Amino acid sequence: MQGHGKASAKDKLTRQVPGIRRKLTHAEISGLYADNPIVQNIVDIPAEDMTRHWFTLRMKDEQLARNIMGRLADLKAKEAFKKMRMYERMRGDGFISLGVTQKSIFDLKDPLKLENLKSIDYLHPFSSMKVSELLINDDVFDNNYGKLENLRINRASRSGIQAVETESLVHYSRVLHDQTRRLEDEEEGMSLLETLYDAITVLDTSLWSVGQILHDFTFKVYQSKDVENLTKDEKRELGMIMDFMFRTEALAIIGAEETLTKQTTPVSGIKDLLDFVWEYIAASARMPKSVIKGQEAGTLTGAQYDVMNYYARITSAQENEQKPLLEQLIRMLLWAENEPGGRIDPDKVEWEIKFNPLWSVDSKTDAEIRKIVAETDQIYISNGVIGADEVRESRFGQFGVSDDFKFSGDDAHWQRVANEVYSAWKENGTHG
């Protein structure tokens, strides 16, 4: 809440002009996050969705793949990647420090050489609050233009009541860095809350306003000609007594020429105003309202196309932003002498990260999809496109209902079902 600062000369909502960017301090970001549960949902939910179902590591050596996944579980990599994305959304930059053991003594400012790597000992997520400086390559004719080269980290420690402040220059190869919003003339990433600040202000104002309406939703009006002859103190005392006596639906005892009526605050149109606020919040955060409000994760009905688009956006973030960092970590596990890889060159082994499906449909939608597929098969059979035996083998196989018949939520499966339905409709419209 802005309190008495609302509608002041600095209030952009009063001046009705586009506001210049408000750069938030770390303290202000922490205050917004700690005070507002909607802000917490906007920050936390996408990070949780990106890591909730994790991924499958595909390798020819399945035992090695299981060992590496087990090692990632020991390192609590899933939790570390979730917190790194939370920090990225909240403060603009998320990091994971790579605690490693090498064959020889090393300095943090030295590049991490994979051939000297013995083991990965820990993964510690942290935010830009720990970083005092980011050194970005600004040479536009360099292959690494725009990439992080070094960072200066605050390594403060506390011994008893005395804090020891130390800073270290750390080479970028010793951290994983998650950053998706950065202006060209800045090194640090931009907090998502900076772009949402006006929307959060309006939402907070809406909460306050609705609270005031509910508090004064009904009130009583007492009319009496004798009130005109009362002093200020007598009116104040009468108001206190009447407020105490008639606050509830209790019996009111008044004179013959006195009246007591109940007034109600009109609320027509308030739903449209609140819907506008929610639509603006959802558009700014690029998240559906149902997701921001905490809809059960991963379960959809057939009509929730906005939620499907949200999960498609999460899938894109997994592939484009999270996958390279996971691949970097797995390459290190393969190279490390004392890790499951036992010094394997990752370039000489076929391996792939496959993210698990983020969502599945509810039982009703799944039944509707089964019905559509069955009708599609009937159209194919009726028009001689495919035989009944082929359909039976395709859908049910030798051992009953095949997994392919069950809708899995995978994007490719969804597209294939949609294509089948469209093709069947087209065939039916042509030949029927």
Q: What does this protein structure show overall?
A:
By secondary structure, the chain is α+β, with helices and mostly antiparallel strands. The chain folds into 3 domains: 208 residues, no CATH class; 47 residues, no CATH class; 70 residues, no CATH class. It is 45% helix and 17% strand. It has a 3-stranded antiparallel β-sheet. It has a 3-stranded antiparallel β-sheet with strand order 4-5-8, with no helix packed on it. A two-stranded antiparallel ribbon has the order 1-13. A hairpin with a 2-residue loop joins strand 6 and strand 7.
Give the helices and strands, then pairings.
Elements: H1 12-15, H2 26-35, H3 37-51, E1 55-59, H4 62-74, H5 77-91, E2 94-102, E3 117-127, E4 131-136, E5 148-154, E6 157-159, E7 162-164, E8 167-171, E9 175-178, H6 192-195, H7 197-215, E10 218-223, H8 232-245, E11 259-264, H9 270-285, H10 289-292, E12 299-300, H11 305-335, E13 351-355, E14 360-361, H12 363-382, H13 388-395, H14 411-431
Parallel strand pairs: 12-14
Antiparallel strand pairs: 1-13, 2-3, 2-9, 4-5, 5-8, 6-7, 10-11
